């Protein structure tokens, strides 16, 4: 915002000429500071450039455009001892002119500032933090758009992210690593949102959570009473085929020979939990204390024999599944890093690959669950819902293979070998995580 133009120059100097150029530049700056029309001079600190050259920068502020034109003509003269004449191809010069921004005129009013960061506003959005200049919500629709804008706008980052995530394996990872990130949702935010939506859809039972909105179902007791009332007359009449055989004699020897075991008396409830060969004496002390035979026996009996115990245990087990899948991310990223030691990629880049793959995993599961529930709600034939779900289930391994090819760029054969190792590691890791989730559920029961 100075009154005169700024003339900015940057010199990219070869390594063997850097020391000599630094000495020359010091004298050059002292010379141009006394030139006609130069109001001020700024110099920057030399920095290394990408092609092993050193970058030297300086900026001159002139009193007027006329003084700048005279200076540029003087430097363009071949007789002037400038950097190009002195160092030749060892120096590459770039220059630009910066002038005062007068696009918005000189208003007598104080410029508006952003309510979020305090920067001067020059338009409907803040150039510093991106917040909209207007602070008041003038309609209900605008409030709804602020809350669900990514859902209602077809060109939003949500749809620009989900579509390639679903149909272009590895594309999001490649674009993110290449620096094309603003068009997509942040990877970890997308992963967390999709995983949350999945577990809400998969385990939310509207008849339990919204029971008041549904007509109550008849209880088993009332159904039994109704059936008993309806069959009272039949019960009063003697049955011509009934016999006086005792209940213990109802066990058919022929059925027993075929493997049918019917117990009428003397059934032990604890027979469901048999830990005869259970031994944890070789395990660490902390494991023996938490998973002793007595404690596991007690937990098993409580789960099997108590009313609702199995459902409660299954709910605890499912509650630990999101944590297990989240813990798998760094483990699988480590496997990828070991499979691609010469890829020159950081560990976090391998982690990003699996963040995107797990996000795809949750997205496809969401679509499969919604499709199945749609078929049920419309009372369509079962095969219409089952066939697409089974077909898309084969897409999970195919997607992983194609994503590895697109991101890491190796041939089919090498990728297939590494794919098999990764797949086996994934299956083993998932089984291990589920086993740990089982232990945590047992310990918390």
Shape: elongated
Q: Please, how many helices?
A: 19
Encode the helix/strand succession as letters.
Answer: EHEEEHHEHHHHHHHHHHHHHHHH
Beta fraction of the residues?
A: 5-15%
The tally of strands reads: 5
Q: What does the radius of gyration come to? A: 38 Å
Indicate the structural class.
alpha+beta
Low-confidence stretches: 237-271
Distance between the termini: 69 Å
Q: Major β-sheet, in short?
A: 5 strands, antiparallel
Mean pLDDT: 75
Secondary structure: helix percent: 40-55%
Question: What does this entry look like structurally?
Answer:
- There is one protein chain.
- The protein is built from 19 helices and 5 strands.
- By secondary structure, the chain is of the alpha+beta class.
- Among the domains are: 6-98, Alpha-Beta Plaits, CATH 3.30.70; 112-153, no CATH class; 187-203 and 319-443, no CATH class.
- Strands 1, 2, 3, 4 and 5 form a 5-stranded antiparallel sheet that branches.
- Helix 16 runs antiparallel to helix 17.
- The longest helix has 32 residues, at 412-443.
């Amino acid at each position: 915002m100075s009154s005169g133009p700024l003339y900015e120059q940057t010199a990219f100097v070869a390594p063997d000429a850097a020391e000599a150029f630094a000495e020359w530049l010091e004298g050059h700056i002292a010379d141009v500071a006394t030139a006609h029309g130069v109001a001020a001079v700024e110099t920057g600190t030399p920095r290394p450039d990408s092609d092993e050259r050193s970058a030297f920068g300086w900026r001159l502020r002139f009193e007027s455009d006329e003084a700048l034109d005279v200076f540029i003509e003087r430097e363009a003269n071949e007789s002037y001892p400038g950097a190009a004449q002195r160092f030749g191809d060892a120096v590459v010069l770039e220059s630009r002119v910066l002038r005062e921004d007068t696009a918005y005129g000189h208003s007598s009013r104080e410029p508006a500032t952003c309510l979020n960061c305090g920067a001067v506003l020059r338009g409907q959005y803040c150039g510093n933090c991106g917040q909209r200049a207007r602070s008041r919500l003038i309609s209900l629709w605008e409030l709804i758009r602020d809350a669900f804008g990514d859902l209602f706008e077809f060109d939003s980052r949500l749809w620009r992210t989900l579509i390639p995530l679903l149909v272009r394996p590895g594309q999001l990872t490649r674009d993110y690593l290449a620096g094309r990130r603003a068009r997509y949702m942040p990877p970890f935010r997308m992963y967390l949102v999709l995983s949350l939506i999945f577990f809400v859809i998969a385990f939310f039972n509207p008849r339990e959570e919204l029971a008041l909105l549904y007509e109550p179902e008849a209880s088993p007791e009332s159904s039994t009473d109704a059936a008993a009332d309806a069959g009272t007359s039949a019960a009063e009449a003697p049955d011509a085929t009934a016999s006086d055989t005792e209940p213990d004699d109802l066990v058919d020897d022929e059925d027993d020979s075929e493997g049918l075991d019917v117990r009428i008396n003397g059934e032990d409830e604890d027979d469901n939990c048999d830990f005869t060969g259970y031994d944890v004496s070789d395990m660490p002390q902390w494991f023996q204390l938490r998973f002793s035979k007595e404690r596991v026996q007690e937990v098993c009996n409580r789960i099997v024999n108590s009313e609702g115990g199995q459902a409660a245990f299954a709910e605890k087990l499912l509650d630990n599944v999101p944590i297990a899948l989240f813990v798998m991310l760094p483990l699988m990223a480590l496997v990828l890093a070991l499979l691609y030691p010469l890829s020159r990629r950081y560990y976090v880049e391998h982690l990003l690959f699996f963040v995107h793959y797990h996000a795809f995993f949750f997205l496809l599961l969401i679509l499969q669950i919604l499709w199945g529930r749609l078929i049920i709600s419309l009372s369509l034939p079962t095969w219409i819902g089952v066939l697409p779900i089974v077909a898309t289930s084969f897409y999970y391994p195919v997607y992983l293979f194609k994503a590895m090819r697109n991101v890491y760029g190796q041939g089919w054969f090498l990728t297939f070998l590494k794919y098999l190792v990764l797949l086996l590691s994934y299956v083993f890791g998932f089984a291990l995580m589920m086993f740990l989730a089982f232990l945590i559920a047992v310990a918390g029961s």
